[in-house]
TrEMBL record:
SUPFAM superfamilies: SirA-like. Residues 22-77 form the UPF0033 domain. It comes from Candidatus Amunia macphersoniae. InterPro entries: TusA-like, TusA-like_sf. It holds the Pfam family TusA. CDD domains: SirA_YedF_YeeD (cd00291). Gene3D superfamilies: TusA-like domain (3.30.110.40). It comes from the Bacteria. This is Sulfurtransferase TusA family protein.
Length: 80
């Protein structure tokens, strides 16, 4: 199955979910429509544990995760 296409990209760098990444994601999500996808790029390993829980709590859907070297890419569909 092909990877879902993202309407926007959020570059998180080394931020973790507790130090500003979630704020950056919320800002990026505000620029896309409900049902569209956001790609989140991160160099922080803890995001892989924290982001799925955040998605469940906020009614967003984690569609795909890819790892390339130190960088992870997450595709999240915006919920309500």
């Amino acid at each position: 199955m092909p990877r879902p296409e993202a309407a926007a990209v959020c570059y998180g760098g080394h931020l973790d979910c507790g130090s500003g990444l979630l704020i950056a994601i919320k800002r990026a999500m505000s620029g896309i429509e409900v049902g569209q996808a956001l790609e989140i790029l991160s160099l922080e390993p803890s995001v892989g544990h924290d982001l799925p829980a955040w998605c469940r709590l906020t009614s967003h859907e984690l569609l795909d995760v890819e790892q390339s070297g130190e960088q992870s890419s997450y595709i999240v569909r915006r919920g309500r």
